[in-house]
Amino acid sequence: MKRLFFLSLAFILAFMLISCDSGNTGDFKITLKLPIDYESVCNDLDDPNSDYTYCINESDQVMLSIYSKSNIADDYVYADRKLIKVTDNKGGKEEFIRSLKKGAYYRFFVEVTNSNEKLKLTGGIDGVYYDDKNNYDVDIFLAPVGDFARVVADRGDAGKTSLKSYFGEGGSKGAAAVALKDGSIYMAGGFDLEEEEVSKKAVVFDMQSISKNEVKDLPVTLYDHIAALLDDGTETGKIVVGLGMTEEDQLNASVWIYDPKNNKYDLFALGAPEMTKAKAITIDGDVYIVGGCSNKGEAGVYRISAKTGSVVSETFATLKQGRCNHAIADVSIVNVDENGVKTVTPRILVIGGSTDAKEGKETPVLGENFAELVTQGVSTPMAVADRNGGDDAELKTKGLISPAAVGVLMDDKEETETVVAVLGGYLRNGEGDAETWVSNPSLLVFSEKGENTLVYDKNGTANECARPSAALLGSEEKNVIKYVAVNCGTQEIDRIKRNATDQVVFVLQVKRVKDSDLGIEVFSSSVKDSLMEGNNDPESDAIILDGPVAVDALGQVFMLGGQYVYQVGSYAVP
Amino acid sequence: MKFFSKLLVMVLIVSLVSPAYSQEAEDEQEVQEAQEAQEAQPAAQEQQSGVNLKVGDNFYFEGNVNDNANDDKEESMAETQSTPIYKQTWFIATVAIVVIAGAAVGVYYGTRTSEPNGKTVEWDNAK
């Protein structure tokens, strides 16, 4: 009888332990992940000549900033921060907050500064829903600020834990990628240069666990297609994906709305013709699709919105000059009234491109239609000139095909100004039989000067990129320098398999400077030095020919299209 | 959580060792009492073997005293007083297995989530 009693007691205790207390008490562990220590200097911290950017060592400081919001549709609000002084070269562990609010969404951003207070590593995660009934164990990968690093879950075992795409070492062309609202990265399609076939694969990179989730394939094989985030008020948002080529020389007219939560594609009736090399951009949660090429340059500008609950589209404007292979930049006007209500007036600057998509035989857009400014219902050609009123870069006579353009808000002065950094692409030299193509040797910054007029400032660069992708890196507010992350690829114009050393990734600095000759303030752009020798990955033979970039809400830029995923550390949360 | 796990292990040990010892002692005591009862029974039977008859009463045996007919009756009565289910070996074994399995699962889950504690940020320079 006693035996039965004690056994029953033990059984009850065990049952209670399982059913009533399985250990989920709202614990939240953040593990900081570091970039590959190529030179292995983090184990030898006494060498004064070494660069310790990739280490968190004694005398460094770790700042963890916490932002939160109660509703997914709201903007994040600063909640708290924790400054940790590093006292051990091996590692550290510290409590960063006593409690988190149940049912709130959190954003965490980490900054590591050295003893000279120089910011060297940053990283963050977004959209973490907190419930005190669960335990959380999340990763934050720290990338060098204004520089790039391969994303790894464990740098001690980089071979196995590097974040990999579905492409091999041969790389790809024409893939598309976009960051979801929760900070994960969606990537789909592309032409696999190793397999020599168009891919229909799609993946979502979960940056909270530094892992890859293979998601449902695209409905068809696609490359040179569009992918852009559509904000429908959900935690992740949805993705507009489509157009492009299903096979070489096979155009696609279909557009789908991908729902990451339910992992499904819904066909969307956009009503656009079959076309490739269109450009898509997200402005205030809506997706704008600009141009593209069928058997001619298409001029339609479509807006897709999900603000009303259902996904709808409309023709936003019509370009004066139909085109593909062009670049677009967000130059919208944002106003915030005294009640904090934000209104966005969408404006898109369209630059260069061609009127057909025949690779190597394109017809560039020239003359007065070289650049257009698209607003609701109208697209206006912009007069383009250098500071002297000429065309030093010969844009209107040689054109500019496949450049990258990024809108940069210069807020260092009381009156803010949005300029557009333009880089890469290729231009036509000569005509007819003497026609040759050369990669663009200039870094350009366009700024509006009066009505319907653009002026540009030009700087030279050794890093020429035939088909780059670029995105604005999170930069400090009011800082005179802003940064653009560039997935350059190669300067070679033909899109064939290359060597890894041809691939370059870099960060562009855009700043306001005084021109002593002209006696006025102009804008300059230059390539920032990288810790990566030759601006490529020293431990990878994988290449990126013309891979996409994706920027998340924390201002972190991800470089994709090759075997690995690279992250550029932002200077600050935008 | 570790405290609960240790407590559980202690309870298990106590339940499997101490009660078993007590049961054995109890069993031994019962056996001893049974033996004593058996030993005492012949004496009682001997004492009760004499029958006080009043004058004029008749005394006789029913049936054949050699056919042991009543022995079967005694056996069938013994069967109706069999060991309770909770003292059956198979029952105890089943309960023990369930308890041990439950405890193992409890210990596993109890210790598995013992880290992290609180809201922590950590890093390892080697990783």
Which features characterize this protein?
heterodimer; A: 574 residues; mainly beta; Immunoglobulin-like; Neuraminidase; 2 domains; 8-stranded mixed sheet; 5-stranded antiparallel sheet; globular; B: 127 residues; mainly alpha; 66% helix
Describe the fold and architecture.
The complex is a heterodimer of chains A (574) and B (127). With 574 residues, chain A is mainly beta. Helix content of chain A is 5%, strand content 42%. Chain A folds into two domains: 13-145, Sandwich (Immunoglobulin-like), CATH 2.60.40; 159-568, 6 Propeller (Neuraminidase), CATH 2.120.10.80. Chain A is globular. Chain A starts with a helix and ends in a 6-residue tail after the last strand. The model of chain A has no long low-confidence stretch (mean pLDDT 92). Chain B is mostly helical. Chain B has three helices and one strand. Chain B has helices spanning 2-49, 69-80, 89-112; one strand at residues 119-124. The chains are: A mainly beta (574), B mainly alpha (127).
